Each structure stands twice: as C-alpha cells, then as structure tokens.
TrEMBL record:
Residues 20-265 form the Peptidase S1 domain. One of its GO terms (biological process) is proteolysis. It comes from the Eukaryota. This is Chymotrypsin 1-like protein. It comes from Dinothrombium tinctorium. One of its GO terms (molecular function) is serine-type endopeptidase activity.
Length: 265
C-alpha cells in the first residue's frame, strides 16, 4: 500500500519550499495538509458565511482557529455548518483534485475569549478522509502534518500557507494556494505591539520584514525539519488591521494545546 510509505508532513512536490522570499503560488501537492473551510452561520434573522484555513491532523480531524467556527459575541440560536475541502489548490477550479464534504462536528476551546483572542483553537471532526494520498501530478494530494517536536520554535524559519490576502493592495483572497516564509519573533519583542501575548501564542514576521498576510485565519504555520517533514507550529489567529509592512501576525501555539487536541481527536 503506497499510503504506508508516506510520512506525516511529507510534500508531494519535488522542489518544495525552495528559496521563497515573498508569498507565491504553492506547487500542486506541495502543502497536502492544507484545508479550505467555509462556515455558514444561520440564525433566525440572518445567514452569514465566512472563509478560513485549517490543516489535517489525522484521517478524521482538522485543526483550525476557534474564531473561525464561533461568532463574537456568540448568539444562542445560531446553527453552524462547515464545509471542508482537502486536496485543493485553485479555488475556481473544481476539477483540480479537491474533495469537499460536510464536517460532522466541531469543538472550539472552552476558554476561547473573543476579547483577548486567547485559546484560539478548534477541532473539526470529519468522516474518514482519503489521507494520505499522493497523485502522480501532485493535484488532489493529501497528507497529515506532523506533531510539533519542540515547545518553542523561536529563531526558526517557518512557512505559512493559505488563500489569504496576497498583497498589501489587494483586499480579496488569492485564487491559488499561497506559501510564504516566516520567522518566529521572540515574545519580548512581540509584546511591544501586543502586550497581552503569552507562551500559548507564536508571533511571526516575514524574513524580509514583510507581513505574513498569505496565511488564512485558522491556517497553518509549519517548520520543515532536517528530514524534510513539516511540523505543525501554529494556527493563524490575528494581526493588526490592513496587514502593514513589518506587521506581526499572531498564531496559536499547537504545542501549547496538545492536551486539548489529544483529548478531542
């Protein structure tokens, strides 16, 4: 079985993560743990929808941000439905290998706060996904991301991915999945901008000083270890308005919430 030979965090792209400085299109199969999520919030008087990223943890678990699945403030009569797409690269192309399905259930962290944006993590349960799966041309490939091996990635070079804002001048989302490099900013430096940050969060900035706007809310920040496998480091949580140059993006630390993840997968 070919799937047995696929390691977590393994890319199905030959030149994965080579020397990117700014955000650019991901190659087919390069980020096979990436998930695209569409939430619909239905209440008696309104229907709203929103878009987020996420990543594949195991065959029936996706991890994303709590703020993606929970409205602020939470209204009691809101019904949330979630459609997840895996193996996707180009949003406008429904035939590029993507598989979309309704999530079975979700759980936001019980201590998630709308005001402080702490504990910004949620777990989505799905039917058994076709994971891992590597196609010959990369399209439609899926894989789990590896668990974090470190509790602190300060000083490491990471990558972020998503269909988020792909330039300072463009409000829309990108049609093609984007990847961008990012460096972990020490918490002491991050607190100059966000005084309330703590060790359950990870602060990221582009290596050339550019903001990390290429991610989506809920999408992954990952570290490619010496074996070439991607480890989950963060979940995109929030940034300052308008994504300024030298802007710092705050991610929820995956390592800090291992107990919550393990209890709910």
């Amino acid at each position: 079985d070919f799937a047995e030979e696929i390691h977590c965090g393994q890319s199905n792209s030959k030149g994965a993560y080579t020397r990117i400085i700014f955000g650019e299109d991901a190659e087919p199969g390069e980020i096979p743990w990436q998930v695209r999520l569409r939430m619909t919030f239905r209440s008696p008087d309104s229907v709203k929808s929103s878009f987020c990223g996420g990543f594949i943890w195991n065959r029936n678990t996706i991890i994303t941000a709590a703020h993606c699945v929970q409205e602020c403030p939470q209204s009691p009569n809101t019904n949330v439905s979630i459609v997840a797409c895996i193996g996707d690269r180009k949003i406008s192309d429904n035939k590029d290998g993507q598989v979309c399905f309704n999530a079975l259930s979700y759980k936001a962290h019980p201590q998630y706060s709308c005001t402080t944006i702490k504990n910004d993590i949620a777990i989505i349960k799905t039917q058994d996904m076709k994971v891992p799966y590597f196609s010959d041309d990369g399209y439609g490939s899926t894989n789990t991301i590896c668990e974090p091996s470190l509790s602190d990635y300060t000083g490491k070079s990471l990558f972020v991915s998503g269909w988020g804002r792909y330039s300072h001048f463009h409000e829309g989302i990108s049609d093609v999945l984007q990847k961008a490099p990012a460096n972990v900013v020490p918490l002491t430096m991050c607190r100059r901008i966000y005084p309330g940050i703590d060790s359950t969060q990870v602060c990221l900035q582009g290596p050339e000083g550019q903001s990390v706007c290429n991610g989506d809310s809920g999408g992954p920040a990952f570290y490619v270890n010496q074996n070439g496998f991607a480890e989950a480091v963060g979940i995109a949580s929030f940034a300052t308005e308008n994504c300024p140059w030298y802007g710092i993006f705050v991610y929820t630390s995956v390592a800090a919430f291992r107990d919550f993840i393990d209890a709910n997968v």
